[in-house]
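Hi Y.,

Following your request, here is the sequence exactly as I used it, all 71 residues.
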Amino acid sequence: MEANCKIEKLEGLTLEIAEVLVTIFKNLYAISLEIKHPNDIVYQGKKIGGILTETKLQGEMVKYVVIGIRY
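Below is the corresponding structure, written out as tokens. Let me know if you'd prefer a different format.
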């Protein structure tokens, strides 16, 4: 993602990260995970983790994004 982009470009970022994680676990480990909107990762009906994103803005421009994934 380009630096100094507008905040609108980040819409859906947390969900995209969740989708990538679900795909990785399915392809590499044959583990089927689900996404509970907006940011939880679920295995066999139980929450096993979450994704948090935090942005630093300068005006309407994004200076950086911090992504946290907790399992």
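The helical segments are 13-29.

Thanks again,
Q.
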